[in-house]
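Known limitations

Files may contain more than one protein. Parsers should not assume a single record per file. Below, a two-record file is shown to illustrate correct handling: read the sequence, read the token line, then continue until end of file.
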Amino acid sequence: MLVSASAGAALGAVRVARRDVGRLIAITSAGVRDDDPELALWYRLLVRPLLRDIYSDMRLMEDTVRTSGLDWTLVRPVLLVDRDPTDTYRVRDDATPRRGRTITRTDLARFIVNEVDRPQWSRRTPTLAQ
């Protein structure tokens, strides 16, 4: 379980270093939420079963972060694509924006940088899509 183990190691390093780390922003996936009605039917029937173990690991990582004692934000993008940024992405808390299927990697990165500079999604799970 690479994702959850990595989160545990990162949180362990913070504790060992005894640094004043107050916030953690982690990226998981919109697919983590089992009951998301906005995920396409083909995705729920074909892809989710294939990625069952990966999503389970991501859920474990999210639980680890939530119980860490840090201020956290768990960013859940939909399918990442290599295109020019749009700067028109949409965000919903703990649910995929309506008909949201993709987001550019640059838009995801910009959301995270903005969140670092101006926290608005503390202890929440924003899902991003175009």
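...continuing to the second record:
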Amino acid sequence: MEQLKYISAYPSHLQAQIQTLIEQDKLKHYLLSRFPEPHKITNDKALRDYVGNIKNQYMKKSANLSKIQYDNKIHLVNNALGMHSYVSRIQGSKLKSKNELRISTLFKSAPIKLLNMICVHELAHLKEKDHNKAFYQLCQYMLSDYHQLEFDARVYLTQVEFFGEIY
């Protein structure tokens, strides 16, 4: 069995199912049956509006985001779901902090449900910095099928790694 690094933490029976789809050249068909088309949020302004709407719906009292953008420099193996950062700067005698959210440009042409999952994941980091129980509870609060969509996003990354993009 080839190394399936994006789903290596999942149970072996799920890895075996994905491996079978790869061997039968059906991984693309599986993904297209679940997610037939890509979203239309293809620029940073549209992404900012989209993320802002999710944040305003579920996390009104959390810190503001100073920057939301697609980023072509994100290394997919280490940051497959995007990046969040907290930047502190001294301006005069004041300490200013900014939260930034960046999503890999790979997801510019992904299905809307996968983009939604990534945005929810990164927004949850505004309140919970670690991937702990509270973090995943917050993700599920914002997106009830979060765990399934995270798995699907990792399957999509596997597709991209082995066969290339499909959208």
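Parsers that stop after the first record will miss the second one. For reference, the second record is described as follows. The chain has a mean pLDDT of 88.
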